[in-house]
Amino acid sequence: MQPQDTKQDTKRRQGKGGDAPEEKKGGVRFSDAFPASVEEIIGRTGTRGEAIQVRCKVLTGRDANKILRRNVKGPVQLGDVLMLRETEIEARQLNKGGRGAGM
């Protein structure tokens, strides 16, 4: 005589499709990104100067060899490679004004 299955046992068994491939759990998925090389450092931007505006050249992808103006947070130098999630939007041009430049 076989013991009776409880509802939990039945659900557990149904959830494990024998033919379906198992999915990896806990894996990290990264979004697609395109490498871009820093060609020129334009200057600091942001209310406290926390970002650096750079001109970078996209190395691969649909917009390969396109030169973009981007804002970068953190240390950056010429020749660094940035990984851009998108290559269509460009940062606003940095105005050369500053504190006390108006009068």
Q: Strand fraction band?
A: 25-35%
The average pLDDT score comes to 83
Uncertain segments are: none
As laid out across the biggest beta sheet, the strand order is 3-2-1-4
Radius of gyration: 26 Å
Helix percent band? under 10%
How many helices? 1
Structural class: mainly beta
Q: What can be said about the biggest beta sheet?
A: 4 strands, antiparallel
How would you describe this structure to a colleague?
The longest helix has 9 residues, at 7-15. With 103 residues, the protein is mostly beta strands. A hairpin with a 5-residue loop joins strand 1 and strand 2. It has one helix at 7-15, and strands at residues 34-45, 51-58, 67-73, 81-84. It has one helix and four strands, in the order H-E-E-E-E.
Summarize the structure in short:
The chain has 103 residues and is mainly beta. The protein has 1 helix and 4 strands, in the order H-E-E-E-E.
Highlighted features:
mainly beta, elongated, 30% strand, 103 residues, 4-stranded antiparallel sheet, single chain
SSE order and pairing:
Blueprint: H1 7-15, E1 34-45, E2 51-58, E3 67-73, E4 81-84
Antiparallel strand pairs: 1-2, 1-4, 2-3
